[in-house]
Amino acid sequence: TYSLDERNLLTLNYSYSKVTYDKIESLAFIDYDFHQASGTYSHLYSEKDTLNLILSSSRFNTPVLNQITFNHVAQLGWQHKFSEQLVAYVSGGLNYSQVETKLNPINPNGGAPIYIDPDTNEPTPQQPVLESDGIGKVFLLSLQKGYERGSVSLSGSQNQTPTSQGLQTQTQIALNNTFNITERWKSGLSASYSTFELKGLSNTN
Question: Residue 12 forms beta bridges with which residues?
């Protein structure tokens, strides 16, 4: 995080994860690696308003499926402080996803491996790559209210992340509440409802 000046702030993030399983029993548990880089530019428009520009890109690789998914997201956000105790935030943007899948070879009569061109349905020595892309929507709405003994927040969001089975869209509504029992003890209650939709190369589940 770097402060350009009193009103402008730049934040950069990078994350990497690699997952391997001892035994692969289904497509729900296959090895993958994931890279994600993001940047957030925040501008203090006024004492009560902050504007955000969020850009992120990710690469999701599943070697077992010979599949790589690229995901790019651009969002604009606005935070408004109605008071010191009441803060609202809204952001929205677009998600662009591109999937590249390398077709597996076939070995006719135990001979040298060949590939079938999906366009001509003819044998070819080159490994064909299927490409598929799509555009989705992402958004976040949140309202946070503080009070003397704690705070409560309500949020709704929609995000898209690549998985081994295609692009997953998650829509969620969440409610969080914290209560200060004493200076040393706190209690909290969280509730959420989520729906998931998987969009593969050719179907939707």
Answer: 39
What is the Cα–Cα distance from 130 to 7, expressed in whole angstroms?
46
Sequence-separated (6 or more) residues with CB below 8 Å from residue 122: 116
Paired tokens of 26: 């289904």
Pick the closest to residue 162 from 128, 127, 132, 192 (CA basis).
132
Give residue-wise pLDDT tens across range 108-135. 666 677 777 777 777 777 778 888 888 8
59 within 8 A of 38, measured Cβ to Cβ: no
Contact 178, 145 (CB under 8 A): no
Contact 75, 89 (CB under 8 A): no
pTM: 0.75
CA 72 to chain centre: 9
> Averaged over 130-155, what is the pLDDT?
90
87 token code pair: 């803060």
